[in-house]
Design brief:
83% helix, 143 residues, binds protoporphyrin IX containing FE
């Protein structure tokens, strides 16, 4: 593989890792928000943290996907391969989870969200499973 390709892959891994920092931490803030239902300084502080993190996650997600697509469509790596199709399905689920976080943040900020802290603890496990699946598929290439 060319040096250029290896730089694209390196940047892909950097932005995937950074995006996942947000996917892991934002629902954690939601758990704390669900434990502080009443308006006040603590809830405002948590909402400010969540809004900043959510804004920061957009370019990270975008760049992780762009560099992945560049390897797949640009360099043709994984084209027609079962592992790539399965990985793309996992990526779509991760993107659905990502945008669900945005919708939940809006509902929490509006005070209209009714999910419990337990519900958010389970919700927070989705990216863990997604990371396992995506990394196993792309490194092991089982099919
Ligand atoms: C649209 C989204 C994505 C596309 C099109 C994509 C595509 C690719 C491609 C073609 C490779 C190179 C594979 C190789 O050189 O053998 C790759 C590497 C990698 N991808 Fe993605 N990817 C995407 C999203 C993700 C996500 C969400 C994760 C993590 C959860 C991820 C984790 C990785 C890792 C760890 C590697 C390096 C594998 C290695 O060095 O062997 N990718 N990706």
């Amino acid at each position: 593989m060319t040096t250029g390709y290896l730089w694209v892959k390196a940047l892909h891994i950097v932005f995937v890792t950074s995006w996942f920092a947000g996917l892991f931490y934002l629902p954690r803030i939601f758990v704390n928000l669900a434990l502080v239902p009443d308006p006040g300084p603590e809830r405002e502080r948590l909402l400010t943290m969540a809004r900043k993190l959510w804004r920061f996650m957009q370019p990270l997600m975008g760049l992780a996907v762009v560099f992945g697509l560049w390897m797949w469509l640009g360099y043709g790596v994984g084209r027609g391969a079962g592992w790539m199709h399965a990985k793309l399905a996992v990526v779509v689920l991760l993107l659905v989870h990502h945008f669900a976080c945005g919708r939940l943040l809006r509902a929490l900020a509006a005070g209209s969200d009714r999910h419990t802290h337990r519900w958010y603890r389970v919700f927070n496990e989705i990216p863990v499973l997604g990371l396992f699946a995506a990394v196993a598929l792309v490194v092991v290439k089982p099919f």
